[in-house]
Amino acid sequence: MSINANNATFQKLIMLPGPTNVPIEVTQAMVAPSIGHRTTDFSSIMKEMIRKGKILFECNEDVIYLSSSGTAAVEASITNILRKDDKAIVTVCGEFGGRVSEQISSVGASAIELVADYGDFPSLSDLERALEKNPDTKAVYIVTNETSSGAMCHWLKEAGDLTSKYGAFLVADAVSNWGADKMPLEDYNIDFIATGSQKSCAAPPGLAMIALSKRYKEQMFKDPQKLHFLNLPRYIKMSDKVKQTPFTPCLPVYFALNKAFDIMIEEGMENRYVRHQVCAKAFYDAFEAMGLQLFGEPKARSNTVVSIAYPEGLDDKEFRGSLSKNYGVVVAGGFGDYAGKIFRVGSLGMINEYYVLTTISSIANNLNRLGFKANTDAAINAALKNLSKL
Amino acid sequence: MSINANNATFQKLIMLPGPTNVPIEVTQAMVAPSIGHRTTDFSSIMKEMIRKGKILFECNEDVIYLSSSGTAAVEASITNILRKDDKAIVTVCGEFGGRVSEQISSVGASAIELVADYGDFPSLSDLERALEKNPDTKAVYIVTNETSSGAMCHWLKEAGDLTSKYGAFLVADAVSNWGADKMPLEDYNIDFIATGSQKSCAAPPGLAMIALSKRYKEQMFKDPQKLHFLNLPRYIKMSDKVKQTPFTPCLPVYFALNKAFDIMIEEGMENRYVRHQVCAKAFYDAFEAMGLQLFGEPKARSNTVVSIAYPEGLDDKEFRGSLSKNYGVVVAGGFGDYAGKIFRVGSLGMINEYYVLTTISSIANNLNRLGFKANTDAAINAALKNLSKL
């Protein structure tokens, strides 16, 4: 029997750390007529996006939208303020921290890495020590959620207190967990949050969002970068002047994200943080009860990316291929050296009891199917113990 | 009476130089389930996009897709090969040529500008002279269609012959006219074509497309740029390896552009060139017959952006506002110093008799409504004389 038995398109459960399942009303919002991006049709949408963005990011400055992936927003956080020989501290414990470190070096700045093992996350003390040693640090870059390994920063608020003390900028590469984990920009003294539309917002990919502090904004204008596409002062000037973008915006995803923001505002950010925490814990408890080994340090566990170590002898391609083909559930593999050693479940966006329980039972059944004993009942019960809090 | 009299959404005629009207089947293609961008679901789409792109661009190397606006692709054509003190010749006769010149300087290269008045386009002799004077020119950047003024390059093929002779790279910023004007990459000895999804392709904005030569590719790999988002070698490596992108792709617009490419292939590029030429000429003849003054040099006239000078006393906001509100037709204003002096009609993508005639009669009626005599019959007849060729 196949999931495509009736020959129609089967919409799989996309349990990836982004892209993720998109609510139908968000998808449908993209079916709208073309509009001119230099007309009031567009600026009225922009006004709304800015208004809603400021509510959700809890920031005072207008939110900036880039028609690009999240990576471009992270790159912008570097090119717009770091200059040759500036010092920048960066958390490195996986693929994405490594990228940020590279990008910092690319602009001729000095990357001071806070390193942790794959599956772990650097500590607040690591940051404290680095700042003591380098009090002239210009900026601290925290990858708040290391998507490649499933480790997250649990001390973001404290980081903001520290950077304030030292006068360093605090930049959060929060591409995969903004919208799921708490990080109010002003309250936490964060200077820059970079994120994307296709992760915890449950919109399609195509837009990156940037919230920034007045301080960061002033720094950029003091010494603007030269290239255009990631030149944030250009975006701010166009937005301030006419509520438009300097370069053609990805209209369909504006329409989609505008709708996704309504959904987020209606649920409320505090509820979203709880929902993500509860569902993540349901997954962790369920996989352990199932008989699997959780990957990574318990103290570093992400609320949006759940990493599991493969039992000896279970082939990644076979496991994930069978899960997709026979159960319609798509999970991610591991990155780099960990390809074939772990799989990662994206637990974000629309995540709720349905997605958690369906994923758990599909994975348990899939393991049994492939000859690896999995305790389905124990897993489901462990999950339900947590999900009852929702 | 209002175009919104029945309180439903009125889908305006978007006669802008991009974004433009999108066929319903292209819009509908975006209503598709989320897929994983690191799965075979995506790589099979990518394979198709590359196959179709190579047919349409008439190039041998795989086409590259950036999830960004066209500007980013143009910027990439600069950052990926120009280095400090390299010489680059660039056509400058409006906003977009000016931007390319700035971006060239941004990377520390020397921009040698071929300048023409707004509404005109530099000549082949200008390029010849510049190359004679600077035989060590690394690259020539031609903005094939200066969207801000409605002037285009009519000697692109000859440019390719020249640059081949001198061993310089030829880069075409063809954001607004690829898909409308002939520019087969290999045949014309072009090294890089940068364009966007929302112009002559009649898809929504959100993707930029790059076709390049083997020569340009090899140069990039010899001395790759450091930053990530526009790092084309990264895109090429991921594509060669697994038919995926290094950063999350804008899925909805992949789906849309994939469908738009089918439409383009079915019509055939040669037919598209003819359609765009005939419709543009229909517009030019009609506006003259109507009693309006065409803006710009006749020899430089664009096939996709038709620029008209406002008669004395006609206010831009009033004219375009009334055209949009009372006729549902949206045209563009002028840029910079020409704001208020000209209006521009985008004649690209889905352009055909219907769009041409509706736009012409709407504009004529609008002029008469505002007290400016316009000869509607003469205009329509002048248009029909051309459109009968389709």
Structural description of this entry:
The structure is a homodimer of 390-residue chains. Chain A is of the alpha/beta class and 390 residues long. The first copy, chain A, has 2 domains: 2-17 and 269-387, Aspartate Aminotransferase, domain 1 (Alpha-Beta Complex), CATH 3.90.1150.10; 24-267, Type I PLP-dependent aspartate aminotransferase-like (Major domain) (Aspartate Aminotransferase, domain 2). Chain A is built from 13 helices and 14 strands. The first copy, chain A, has helices at residues 24-28, 40-57, 70-79, 95-106, 124-133, 156-166, 214-222, 232-242, 251-267, 269-290, 316-327, 353-369, 376-387, and strands spanning 13-14, 64-66, 87-92, 110-115, 139-143, 145-146, 151-152, 169-173, 192-196, 208-212, 293-294, 305-309, 329-330, 342-346. In chain A, the strands form 4 sheets. A 7-stranded mixed β-sheet of chain A has the order 2-10-9-8-5-3-4, with helices on both faces. In chain A, strands 11-12-14 form a 3-stranded antiparallel β-sheet, covered by helices on one side. In chain A, strands 1-13 form a two-stranded parallel sheet. In chain A, helix 11 (316-327) crosses helix 12. The radius of gyration of chain A is 21 Å and the shape is globular. The mean pLDDT of chain A is 96. Chains A and B meet through helix 3, helix 4 and helix 9 of A and helix 3, helix 4 and helix 9 of B.
